[in-house]
Design goal:
It is found in: Cytoplasm; Nucleus. The structure is a single chain. By secondary structure, the protein is mainly alpha-helical. 71% of the residues lie in helices and 1% in strands. The chain has 55 helices and two strands. It is globular and about 120 Å long. The termini are far apart.
Length: 1091
């Protein structure tokens, strides 16, 4: 049979399709013979043709991958011995490579303990004096280690010592490369016992890769991934060598003679290092050298006669996504983006500003472009710092650059303005009077045939208008005239697509003000949505997305009549067009419709949920990258070569799915990732708005969404966590509406799965954005589900521990090495802690004063340390705000349950420690910190009962001084609320005759309208206790009433309270009321009822 198989394999390499097809059929028939593997092994070791030997080795591996369990024991043992024998006698590299791959498959089943001959082979060959033998041994070692690294752990120290030698074998580049590949495979399993040995290899690794660069840049680029793997390890392997690694990456990135792929890999490695070890970058003063290399890379002009990919103008009507260029210039900007996200803004700006200013003033347009790109990538990570210190100046630079003579500079200015508009809301909207005319003028003056330029102009406009709110109204006629004209007159599909997208952004800002333009917009969108031609697909997709935005913004009364038609339209498109982007936008449309007309979706929930679950289950868009030598054998799929009675399918259910194919890796197209993300989001939102109608589908939908929480892509994980939370909120809402034990059990079943997943993510997830999303969703659940969320024993303790870990920088997504509570941190690190801190008052509200008191005591030191004057404004505002809201929650629980004394007893324990800190905050220079501090003092007074009675004179003195000089309206509103709380809590201690007139002078509230309830309840309280005082100021009181009654400024309960006061005044003091109302411009009639 060996000769027969060799002949068949020789036919497969003939350049004749008919011969190949005949050989393929013969081979499939041969595979049905149980003796096929021994026969192939014979070919593998005896054939005189190297290509045939390689084919045979690949065939054996393909059979072993799927049929190992069915092989007879003697065949398995013979195979192990034969592979090692073949490796020792083989002379051709490509055959040795295939044999090492076969050995790696065997190691998956036969661990080193059960294959001592393999260990002997590796031990002898890797230490051989013969360079060729060393290379073979290291090749096999790299493959078997990549296949199954963990069983080799007892040998790790020995291997690390070996690498200390092989990495210095500079004349044998393949040996160095295989050593590095092996180390990469080991990296995830290295522990404390291997730490010191691994650290000694870092300098040798860098030298070895430099030699690889000279010999093979493709290998060198792949080898550099070892740094990513070592940095991912929880052990601080790289930290002692951070400076050398940074210099190594910078040296490669700056070398323009190298291929882009190697320079990009160096910059990518540097970016990853900054993400994980940003603190070390600062401590070792590496920021200046990093920036000194990055700026020349970013400023480099493209080769003569060429343009940077992002500046290319596509052909008219070409529909394309914004190009994401994988060039050194692109990755250099990403490194600055990473610096902004992971370093304190103040320290980054100190180094970066001089370079940026010099670039912006340069005569070289590519230098100016680099300066603008630098501003653009700072917007997300340094948003607070820019808002407070640089926004006007930076906007001036962008506006000036929009008139630059160079198109590349104008493009960069548009991109920067779009980034600022996205990340610096609402502050940037204050400049609408300057920026909107500029953008409209710019848009009207550009050549619509130049697609790339137009795209950037629309990008800037869209991001800016989206959050303008009512400030958009003066520009609405001009904007909509331009957009509608583009929809009806433009020849370019791209321009129509951009205009449809812009209408969505305009609708987000204008909301009901868009109504005059609603019908022509809808008519155009319907026309695009029924057109199924492939060339208008992108326009169709954008139309679906904008239709969903209109559903959420134009108003329920306006859009509800269209809901049934929109549902049917979405279902028809899903059934007739196979496109992941279209399905994604259809799901978004269904979610939007659930907010305005859930009834329109309910009859179609079986179809809708099935579609979305199919998207979650689907492996469409997943590409398996086969190992290079396996690709010629795709036609010999195992499913074809097995006989019909083969029971391997049954066996493989219990096997490793990765073993079924010889796969080097997987990739997933972005469109399919986005589809899964939006399916998770939409299912969660639809369930919440559909309520009990969604119950028949919630378990199956939850199971599919839950599976996505460990999906490789972070956006899908975020959406899965959010969807899981929405399902819990849905069941809580259903239980509240129908409080049966069955509904309660269903809720707690989900909670018992969701909270452990959340807490595990907070602890172990490396992506900071995912953790922020988890914390945000968990807070929403605590807000909605309240005590039910923490009813399970131990859960309150677990959640509090997770929050403490974040505040102490102990989570995996934080750079918590050498934690120093006083050092500055990146804005996103502060934001992460803010998300965690928002859970503290929610837990207090759910748990109640007595149960939460010990946890509050544990949180206080972590919060108070952030109130120091040396801390950032954001930290001071966050910590005091969190304390204030927690105090308010504790007081609110007590009032709601009648346990005021209980709350006062708990909170009074902390009063002496808190009051001095809060009073210091009242004197802070920052408006927000003062506002939060005043609010906190009022909340402390309210929650402490009579414990602070002796402090009233001092508090009143501070507030009196503050009122006399304060100009910030929000602070004044909070002073009014604090005085109101003091008055209601302890009227005898307040000189109400002096305080009440001051209070009236600052009413109605101007900014913090949430405090209206507190203030007007106090006014009613004063009336019930000091009626003559109120009547003395009746004219002023009535004027205040006239401004707030019948408005959305006050809640229904507060309106009713004021009306009751007004009716009582009319009964008790009719003459005084008549004399005032008869002459008043705004008359209030006491017979008014609830509005």
């Amino acid at each position: 049979m060996t000769d027969q198989l060799e002949h068949i394999l020789s036919q497969l390499v003939q350049p004749d399709n008919a011969i190949i097809q005949q050989a393929t059929a013969q081979l499939k028939q041969a595979f049905k013979d149980p003796a096929v593997i021994p026969a192939l092994c014979g070919v593998m070791t005896t054939s005189q043709d190297a290509q045939i030997r390689q084919f045979a080795a690949v065939m054996v591996r393909m059979r072993v991958l799927k049929h190992w369990r069915k092989l007879a024991p003697d065949i398995k043992e013979n195979l192990k011995a034969l592979v090692l024998q073949a490796l020792q006698q083989e002379t051709e590299h490509k055959v040795r490579h295939s044999l090492s791959q076969l050995a790696s498959v065997l190691v998956k089943h036969e661990t080193p303990d059960h294959w001592p001959a393999l260990l002997n082979f590796l031990n002898q060959s890797t230490k051989s004096a013969n360079p060729q033998e060393r290379q073979i041994g290291l090749l096999v070692l790299s493959k078997v280690m990549d296949s199954n690294p963990e069983p080799f752990k007892p040998h790790y120290k020995q291997l690390l010592k070996l690498f200390g030698t092989t990495l210095e074998d500079h004349g044998n580049t393949n040996a160095m490369f295989y050593s590095i590949q092996t180390l990469s495979a080991m990296a995830a399993f290295l522990g404390a016992e291997e730490l010191n040995l691994t650290r000694t290899l870092i300098p040798k690794l860098m030298v070895a890769i430099k030699h690889l660069i000279q010999a093979n840049q493709v290998q060198a680029s792949e080898a550099m991934e070892v740094f990513d793997e070592l940095m991912e390890n929880e052990m601080p392997i790289i930290v002692p060598h951070v400076s050398e690694v940074v210099q190594f990456c910078l040296e490669i990135a700056a070398n323009t003679t190298l291929e882009d792929s190697v320079r990009v890999k160096a910059l990518s490695c540097l970016s990853f290092l900054i993400r994980l070890k940003g603190k070390a970058i600062l401590k070792q003063k590496l920021l200046p050298p990093i920036l000194q290399v990055l700026f020349p890379v970013m400023s480099a002009a493209p080769p003569h006669g060429e343009e940077d990919p992002e500046d290319l103008d596509p052909e008219p009507d070409e529909i394309e996504d914004e190009l994401e260029a994988h060039t050194p210039k692109h990755y250099a900007a990403q490194v600055i983006d990473m610096l902004a996200l992971h370093l304190p803004a103040e320290k980054l700006f100190n180094q970066l500003t001089p370079m940026t200013e010099a670039a912006l003033c340069s005569e070289n347009p590519y230098h100016r472009k680099a300066g603008l790109m630098c501003l653009a990538v700072l917007a997300e990570g340094c948003a607070d710092h820019i808002r407070q210190k640089h926004l006007p100046a930076m906007l001036q630079v962008m506006c000036r650059s929009l008139g630059d003579e160079s198109q590349v500079v104008r493009n960069a200015a548009l991109f920067a303005l779009g980034q600022f508009s996205e990340h610096l809301q609402p502050d940037i909207s204050k400049y609408s009077d300057e920026l909107m005319p500029l953008l409209l003028n710019y848009l009207s003056g550009i050549d619509s045939r130049r697609g790339g330029h137009v795209t950037k102009a629309y990008y800037a406009l869209e991001n800016f208008v989206e959050n303008l709110g009512d400030k958009i109204e003066p520009y609405l006629p001009t904007l909509m005239e331009r957009m509608l004209t583009s929809l009806t007159c433009a020849q370019s599909i791209r321009i129509k697509e951009l205009s449809v997208s812009a209408i969505g952004a305009i609708a987000n800002a204008a909301k009901g003000a868009l109504l005059p333009y609603f019908q022509p917009v809808i008519d155009n969108l319907k026309g695009y949505l029924v057109n199924t031609r492939e060339e208008v697909r992108s326009l169709q997709i954008q139309s679906l997305e904008t239709l969903g935005v209109l559903a959420r913004t134009i108003g329920k009364d306006v859009f509800s009549p269209l809901a049934d038609e929109c549902v049917q339209l979405g279902l028809n498109l899903s059934n007739t067009v196979d496109d992941p982007d279209l399905r994604r936008c259809t799901y978004g449309l269904f979610a939007s419709l659930s907010t305005v007309s859930p009834a329109s979706l309910i009859p179609h929930l079986p179809t809708i949920t099935t579609l979305m679950m199919m998207s979650l289950k689907s492996t469409e868009g997943v590409t398996a990258h086969l190992t290079e030598e396996s690709q010629p054998f795709l036609l010999l799929d195992d499913d074809d070569v097995d006989d019909e009675n083969d029971d391997s399918v049954i066996e493989d259910v219990h096997g490793d799915p990765e073993e079924e194919r010889d796969v080097a890796g997987f990739s997933v197209e972005n469109a399919y990732i986005d589809e899964k993300e939006d399916a998770c989001d939409a299912l969660g939102e639809i369930s919440f708005h559909s309520g009990s109608a969604f119950l028949p589908y919630i378990e199956s939908c939850f199971q599919e969404v839950y599976k996505m929480h460990d999906f490789p892509h972070e956006n899908v994980r975020k959406a899965a966590y959010d969807g899981m939370g929405q399902f819990c909120r849905t069941l809580h809402k259903v239980w509240k509406e129908n409080p049966t034990e069955l509904n309660r059990e269903a809720l707690h079943k989900l909670l018992s799965m969701v909270f452990p997943a959340y807490l595990k993510s907070v602890k172990e997830e490396r992506d900071r954005q995912v953790v922020m999303s988890v914390l945000e969703t968990m807070n929403e659940m605590l807000k909605d589900c309240g005590v039910e969320a923490i009813r399970t024993p131990g859960r309150l303790d677990q959640i509090c521990k997770a929050i403490r870990d974040i505040l102490q920088k102990k989570a995996a997504c934080q750079d918590g090495d050498d934690y120093d509570e006083d050092e500055q941190q990146a804005e996103f690190d502060s934001m992460l802690q803010e998300y965690a801190g928002e859970g503290i008052p929610l837990l207090a509200l759910a748990a109640g004063p007595q149960e939460f008191a010990p946890y509050f005591a544990g949180f206080l030191p972590l919060l108070l340390v952030k109130t120091k004057s040396s801390c950032t404004v954001a930290d001071r505002s966050f910590s005091i705000g969190t304390i204030a809201e927690t105090l308010q929650a504790l007081g609110g629980v007590a009032m709601g349950t009648g346990g005021v004394a209980e709350s006062a007893g708990v909170v009074s324990r902390f009063a002496s420690k808190l009051l001095p800190v809060l009073m210091g905050g009242v004197r802070d220079e920052d408006d927000e910190v003062r506002s939060n501090s005043v609010f906190a003092v009022g909340a402390l007074v309210e929650a402490s009962g009579e414990a602070l009675t002796l402090d009233y004179p001092a508090l009143l003195g501070v507030f009196s001084n503050l009122v006399s000089r304060e100009t910030n309206k929000r602070v004044l509103d909070n002073v009014c609320a604090a005085l109101s709380r003091m008055t209601v809590c302890n009227l005898p201690c307040v000189p109400v005759e002096q305080v009440f007139p001051v209070l009236l002078r600052h009413l109605p509230l101007k900014k913090d309208l949430e405090e209206n309830t507190t203030v007007y309840n106090c006014l009613a309280f004063v009336y019930s206790n000091k009626q003559p005082l109120v009547i003395q100021h009746l004219r002023q009181v009535l004027n205040i009433f006239s401004e707030v009654l019948g408005t959305e400024q006050i809640k229904t309960d507060t309106q009713n309270t004021l009306l009751m006061v007004l009716q009582d005044i009319a009964q008790r003091y009719p003459q005084e009321l008549q004399s005032i109302t008869s002459s008043a411009t705004h008359k209030i009639h006491p017979e008014q009822t609830d509005t």
